[in-house]
Amino acid sequence: xxxxxxxxxxxxxxxxxxxxxxxxxxxxxxxxxxxxxxxxxxxxxxxxxxxxxxxxxxxxxxxxxxxxxxxxxxxxxxxxxxxxxxxxxxxxxxxxxxxxxxxxxxxxxxxxxxxxxxxxxxxxxxxxxxxxxxxxxxxxxxxxxxxxxxxxxxxxxxxxxxxxxxxxxxxxxxxxxxxxxxxxxxxxxxxxxxxxxxxxxxxxxxxxxxxxxxxxxxxxxxxxxxxxxxxxxxxxxxxxxxxxxxxxxxxxxxxxxxxxxxxxxxxxxxxxxxxxxxxxxxxxxxxxxxxxxxxxxxxxxxxxxxxxxxxxxxxxxxxxxxxxxxxxxxxxxxxxxxxxxxxxxxxxxxxxxxxxxxxxxxxxxxxxxxxxxxxxxxxxxxxx
Length: 384
Fold this sequence. Notes:
The chain is of the alpha+beta class. It is 50% helix and 17% strand. The protein has three domains: 8-121, Butyryl-Coa Dehydrogenase, subunit A, domain 1, CATH 1.10.540.10; 123-233, Butyryl-CoA Dehydrogenase, subunit A, domain 2 (Beta Barrel), CATH 2.40.110.10; 237-380, Up-down Bundle (Butyryl-CoA Dehydrogenase, subunit A, domain 3). It has helices spanning 8-25, 29-35, 40-49, 67-78, 82-102, 105-117, 235-271, 283-311, 317-342, 352-360, 370-380; strands at residues 121-125, 141-145, 148-159, 166-177, 183-191, 197-202, 213-224, 228-229, 273-274, 277-278. The strands form three sheets. The protein has a four-stranded mixed β-sheet with strand order 1-4-5-8. It has a four-stranded antiparallel β-sheet with strand order 2-3-7-6, covered by helices on one side.
């Protein structure tokens, strides 16, 4: 029979991250959120715990674990704060994973040890101004000039792209034309500080206020020809496969937020009194919290299945999209209900549910919108 119990190693990791999130992140993250400040100390602690190296081999400085281990960590962090969780998610699945999956031996040895230790962060430059969900509408170009790529263009909404420890951004760029006249899109590693590479001012965001997000611009930015990541002309396909994995990770983060809403509401329902009794004794509150737990539980099963298929080497595109869609919906719905249960206090950022509400919406947009997930699911069912 199917057994969803975690083995001892996974459970030990889950508990370790849970304790870190509750004891180290929860007491201080509200202040970082209010100030819009990146939590370098917390990121450094996660690095020392080995979280950034979870799914990577030990030979490159990783922990020798797998992607499901990363998802468990993301869920536990997401129960407390999404800014810290998405910093880990993007650092691993978007910053380091493309180099691990598609990089040369030299590229792996150069970049992965620092990325796995959390001493450095990497960004993933796919989205462009005006492009939105149409990731194939790439306008950024990279032209080969002798032994250098000359990059020109811009990217939008790039996580981990402007911190003091950001070392690189891998960008998709048009490097030529295919035989059919279509765009040849490749991936190029651009190290931070390269002349012509400008990190734009940070965005003023609705949520994820303690995470790092910038627009990027490239003006005659020259990088060595060996900074091509993977096969020329395969950059778009490579990044789509990276997004499939990333959707499982975002699903785990979303489940964390959804479960965090349940945690906060259970605590509040036992403490808050109205009309002479604890509000948890009222059926209206009980039913709301029951529905919230149902959503979180169902969404968790969805990402567990997607991760299991991924680790078995089976196709998991459909399951990844289902998990991402179900989990982001659960996060948004639970955040709405939690805010309602908290009433006026839920509208205050000093309470976690206020931050959860602000953070939940982007989960229905980032790593592919809910509409994109439905398109993927339909196509995987044979509907074209």
